[in-house]
Amino acid sequence: MTKVTAAITALDGYVPENVLSNADLAKIVDTNDEWITTRTGIKERRIVSKGEAASDMGAEVVRGICKKRGISPEEIEVIVVGTITPDYRFPSAGNLICEKSGAVNAWSFDLGAACSGFLFAIATGIQFIESGRYQKVIVIGVDVMSTIVDYTDRTTCVIFGDGAGGVLLEPNNEGYGVMDYIMRNDGSGREHLLQEVGGSAEPLTEENISERRHFVFQDGKAVFKQAVTKMADVAAEIMEKNALESEDVAWLVPHQANLRIIDATANRMGLTKDKVMINIEKYGNTTSGTIPICLWEWEDQLKKGDNIILAAFGGGYTWGSIYIKWAYTSS
To answer: 71 and 112 share a domain?
Structure first.
């Protein structure tokens, strides 16, 4: 009997209309285009409009996926959402995405793994398919980082943007779909990249808000040192585990955090730049959204049977890689 795998059968993405360029940021904080571009590769990022939340972007993705696949949102059975910026502490963003998109028969939940959130959500979502319990599972990566970024801190505000993307997982018995994954985490990294207050360890107070500790904190040098090795290592590890050589890999889809980290990962895998999806210059780091947004933008270049490697590193620390054998060629 052929093993049932979870294959991506449709995908979609969404980015807000508002563009925040490096020149715009230079009017807000002490920075300039050369400083940002040299250190990150980012030229601009998208920022939500007032009143636009994670669930609004996620709902757009669900509707887009269903339209492409020619199905109703009512046919979706489970929605897994990778996010660290849900609309509320509760209810979950997934709960609201179901309601706003018309996926009224699905149950849902959020999963928080920072920039690795989409990968962790994929690794979770495929279990529902492989078990045979469900036939249609949507996995979304969405973040509204502009809501937790301090726009007086030039070390963080230049990096992040807002956006969402997602995929539909369905059963496949032809040998396509998610072939393997490796997920890792190390909680000792929390001191270098975190949202320090607002959780149960230290609830919000007037004092810590006035100290601006409710925004993202990042020790850039420490995070870069870990990301540049761990993301590259885990991508190389999944290739070795599955006996893949560089010529076997059609695409690397890396988390879009920093161009130097992306280059280091590609080099470790022995890949030339033409095999690497890069759009960091347009969108910056949308956290859980980066990888699915890349897949959305490159969809028309993906061919059935392509070997694709996803790789990410995020706060906490979290990191991982997924090996996918692509299941369809776009018409």
So the answer is: yes
Same domain, residue pair 198 and 89: no
Residue 330 belongs to a domain: no
Residue 253 sits in the same domain as residue 271? yes
Residues 204-244: pLDDT tens digits?
999 999 999 999 999 999 999 999 999 999 999 999 999 99
pLDDT digits 0-9 by tens, 45-60 = 999 999 999 999 999 9
Helices (runs of H) and strands (runs of E) counted in the chain? 11, 13
Please count the structural domains in the chain: 2
- State pLDDT tens for residues 123-182: 999 999 999 999 999 999 999 999 999 999 999 999 999 999 999 999 999 999 999 999
Q: Which of 66, 172, 285, 294 is catalytic?
A: 285
| Alpha-carbon radius of gyration of the chain | 19
The whole-number pLDDT of residue 1 equals 53
Pairing of strands 251-254, 307-314: parallel
Q: Are residues 264 and 135 in the same domain?
A: no
Residue 233 has phi, psi (to 5 degrees) of: -65, -45
Write out the residue range of the structural domain in which residue 73 sits. Answer: 5-174
- Residue the block writes with tokens 């929390």: 190
Can 115 be counted among the known catalytic residues? yes
294 is catalytic: no
CA distance linking residue 240 with residue 237, whole number of Å: 5
257-266: pLDDT as tens digits? 999 999 999 9
Tokens 């989409």, residue? 118
Q: Which of 66, 98, 115, 294 is catalytic?
A: 115
Q: Token pair of 83, please? A: 């996010």
Classify residue 248 by its DSSP letter: G
Tell me whether residue 192 is one of the annotated catalytic residues.
no
